[in-house]
């Protein structure tokens, strides 16, 4: 498997993966991603900012997500808590796994790859938000040692905010 920056040639495959993830959220009873976001414009913006990453194998893309090495404005106003750190951080958004990757732990691998990339850039904090009812992502946060820090307002709704300090 290979972790790399996504390219414009990947857009169709990424969009297919996101559509599967959107439907999966709906099937799980989650309200997350049920309002037209993420969409193809989200992918384009991730590509334009250099934030789009994929994990692929010899058959194609297994996972997609954005690793944003910049300030997330919504994270400036955390409620009912506080961040663990105040320095530079990477934000992970829009993580989605292909249907064929089910059971492979590919989302966990995506997080591990972004953490390694952050450390290579001397950034030792990863911040993430997710919906209260996204049980799959909440399990990943717990499994990988992310700490609940409070709530942030993102995309028109309140989200659970997590941070992991890397060593």
TrEMBL record:
Record Pfam families: Acetyltransf_1
Protein name per Swiss-Prot or TrEMBL: Acetyltransferase (GNAT) domain-containing protein
Q: Does the keyword Transferase apply?
A: yes
Cleavable signal peptide: none
According to the UniProt entry, its GO molecular function terms are:
acyltransferase activity, transferring groups other than amino-acyl groups
User: Which InterPro entries does this one have?
Assistant: Acyl_CoA_acyltransferase, GNAT_dom
Keywords in alphabetical order, please: Transferase
Q: Where is the N-acetyltransferase domain?
A: 1-167
């Amino acid at each position: 498997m290979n972790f790399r920056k996504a390219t414009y040639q990947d857009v169709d495959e990424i969009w297919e993966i996101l559509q599967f993830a959107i439907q999966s959220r709906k099937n799980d009873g989650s309200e997350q991603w049920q309002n037209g976001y993420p969409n193809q414009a989200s992918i384009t913006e991730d590509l334009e900012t250099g934030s789009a990453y994929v994990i692929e194998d010899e058959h194609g893309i297994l996972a997609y997500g954005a690793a944003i090495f910049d300030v997330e404005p919504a994270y400036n106003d955390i409620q009912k808590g506080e961040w663990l750190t105040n320095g530079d951080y990477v934000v992970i958004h829009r993580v989605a796994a292909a249907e064929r990757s089910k059971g492979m732990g590919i989302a966990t691998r995506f997080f591990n790859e972004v953490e390694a990339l952050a450390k290579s850039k001397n950034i030792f904090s990863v911040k993430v938000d997710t919906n209260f009812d996204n049980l799959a992502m909440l399990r990943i946060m717990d499994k990988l040692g992310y700490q609940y820090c409070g709530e942030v307002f993102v995309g028109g709704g309140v989200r659970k905010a997590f941070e992991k300090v890397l060593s």
